[in-house]
Design brief:
Number of helices: 18
Radius of gyration: 22 Å
Shape: globular
Distance between the termini: 23 Å
Strand content: under 5%
């Protein structure tokens, strides 16, 4: 007697999540060990510089993307089974990413130099730190776009193998080099070189599903830029708002406070496994769904119920075991127990907010930047007037409250989407080939 469709679907999802989650547990475990090695082996001032440089790398990468990856996911979700058309979408996205990267460097590099100087770095250290970001930055220009293709085809195993290679390579380099040379630029190189190698492997994986020997297409470019125009203002704002905690404490706090914020942020990376599993499995499948209002609404509610339950459980665990969690990052940071729950709640909230953003934008549901930025700036002004940014507690209260406001606004927007007819008109329905696909979500 065959199993019921419901049990078969549960089994498939359980198997997929366990494979992805198991591999990501190893990848994120390696990343966590690397982070702990960096925290423990670098002097406090070097780790403060490392935190600033890593933060700026994230800013540069976000600005270089500007919504391009979302546009590629949205356009690719429409024609994901056509190797030629998918290749055109990918090539067009890579072409746009390179153009954005130049302006990203022009804007971000002076800020990096200023923050390092403000926190005691000499010119030699600044030069070495800036140069050491190059491998990771160039890998970042393409890896997030290249991953979209195997994600759409759910070639999870190839992605996992590549991520394992990068994670283990980073762990080995970090473990060997930092014991001998405990400097910020060495830690950054140990992270960037394996990522650049993994980028080469990603290109080979992508070749099986998309032809990259093509020229950018003006129509595809126009469609991607439509999404970029909606996302770019928010991306610029997000670059500022998401990194503002580090920037504020870099200006108003001490070098020790920067290191403490960086150490707590490193602990927050434990939750990256959730983000990776979500964007690898859930987002591409949500992007591929037919444009049925009822189907999309039901899937969205199912996803959110599961995520909210998981987030609540994680906050509870952190509140029960604060000292055990702080033991991971060492004696230098054992006094951070009073702010640990706030910091980890902020990280968990960021995962929830990121998941909302990912599934919404994968369907082209993009909140108007004027609304999101206006609400964000207004709330930030109020919080800046009320909070003390020379302390770790003040910085993380700022981060947590901002995250909660973003979550509330995102839920309101999705509610508006499902109440509106314009997101589900005939012009938005996917092509007939996609409609005929039996998608087991």
């Amino acid at each position: 007697m065959s199993a019921s469709p419901r049990y078969s679907k549960v089994f498939r999802w359980s198997k997929l999540i366990s494979i992805t989650g198991g591999a990501q547990a190893i990848v994120q475990g390696a990343g966590l060990i690397c982070g702990i090695l960096v925290i423990r082996l670098l002097p406090v001032n070097e780790y403060a510089w490392y935190t600033i440089a890593n933060t700026m790398l994230g800013t540069i990468s976000l600005l270089a993307d500007g919504g391009i990856s979302t546009g590629v996911m949205t356009e690719g979700g429409k024609i994901w089974q056509n190797r030629d058309k998918l290749g055109v979408v990918l090539v067009t996205g890579l072409y746009l990413r390179k153009k954005f990267a130049f302006w990203s460097l022009i804007v971000s590099t002076p800020i990096l130099v200023y923050l390092l100087m403000h926190n005691g770095a000499n010119w030699l250290s600044i030069l070495l730190i800036t140069a050491s970001l190059i491998p990771a930055f160039f890998a970042a220009l393409s890896d997030s776009l290249l991953e979209i293709v195997p994600k759409l085809h759910q070639d999870i195993i190839s992605l996992q193998k590549n991520q394992l290679t990068v994670g283990i390579g980073r762990l080995i380099l970090t473990g060997i080099l930092l014991f001998i040379f405990p400097f910020t630029f060495i830690a950054l190189l140990a992270s960037g070189i394996p990522r650049a190698y993994g980028n080469i492997n990603l290109k080979n994986i992508t070749n099986a599903f998309a032809r990259k020997d093509q020229n950018p297409d003006l129509t595809v470019q126009k469609n991607i830029l439509k999404i970029v125009k909606r996302i770019l203002p928010s991306s610029i704002y997000f670059c500022i708002s998401s990194q503002i905690t580090i920037w504020l404490i870099s200006i108003f706090g001490s070098t020790e406070s920067i290191a403490q914020v960086g150490a707590l942020g490193r602990l927050g990376m434990i939750f990256n496994i959730l983000t990776v599993v979500f964007v690898t499995i859930v987002v591409p499948r949500f992007a591929r769904l037919p444009n049925s209002k009822i189907l999309l609404r039901n899937r969205f509610l199912q996803i959110q119920i599961a995520i909210l339950a998981l987030c609540g459980l994680l906050v509870l665990l952190v509140s029960i075991f604060p000292n055990q969690i702080l033991w991971i990052i060492g004696e230098k940071y054992k006094n951070l127990s009073p702010v640990l729950v706030i910091a980890m709640s902020s990280s968990i909230g960021s995962f929830l907010l990121g998941s909302l953003y990912s599934i919404s934008t994968s369907r082209g549901w993009i909140i108007h930047p004027i609304l999101s930025i206006s609400v964000g700036i207004f709330s930030q002004i109020i919080l800046i007037l009320l909070l003390n940014f020379s302390t770790v507690r003040g910085v993380y209260y700022f981060s947590l409250i901002q995250t909660l406001i973003g979550i509330f606004l995102s839920y309101l927007f999705v509610f508006y989407v499902f109440q509106s007819k314009r997101f589900f008109t005939k012009s938005n329905v996917r092509n007939q080939n996609d409609q005929k696909i039996n998608i087991s979500y």
